[in-house]
Predict the 3D structure of the following.
Amino acid sequence: MRKNIVAGNWKMNMTLPEGVALAKELNEKLKSAETNCDVIIAPPFTHLASIVAVVDTNRIKVAAQTCSNKVSGAFTGEVSPDMVKSTGATAVILGHSERRQFFGVTDEQVKEKVDLVIERGMTPIVCIGENLEQREKGIYFDVIGTQVKKALFHLNPDDFRKVILAYEPVWAIGTGKTATAEQAEEVHSFVRKLIASQYGTQVADDTTILYGGSCKPSNARELFSQPDVDGGLIGGASLKADDFMGIITAF
Ligand code: PEP
């Protein structure tokens, strides 16, 4: 059975005291909430260890927003998978469109990062998604299919089962423009079929595929009600505990 998950990507927001305060607030609210999903938060690197220390990590998993594709060495400014793991974080977002767009991250690098993150016993949350031009040209299945195959299809079935996927149409990220539930379902179901073609229907059925892109309390329920949408990767709306809780409780 696949898991429902709501994950918050804080991006480059929040000072350390602000981030710790938000994590504590969320931790408190979750104690008394009826929920039907796992919760992940992805603060900046600088906050990971402090946040792991103040949340119940059985209830809130802590993730990094990226990591290096290198193990160690002369890579100034990079943060290795081992460093992430040593903070107590248990997952890493990989291939987010902002990393691809602004920092030149390639599918090949995402693949290398996926391997290192799995080797370290952490969970890769792998982002895929088309930009507006690709959507308008009608080539989004090709784009997404290529991203999935290049980053993940070298994995054996056991390792593939450790992956969480996040479909994030780039045109919907931070734009206030959400994909309709039908648009999200169309891609999620395509991705699940693609996984089935490589790993079989059982693995495909067990894979969690999140939707990301201007998801908020007002649209989460409709998106999450789609058969192949197993939760959300949430940017802006994860920065306020009430909004994030509104999405978590949408299940
Ligand atoms: C994201 O960047 O992962 C994201 C989904 O952002 P937002 O919710 O702000 O669109």
User: Anything to note?
Assistant: The radius of gyration is 17 Å. Residues 181-199 form the longest helix (19 residues).
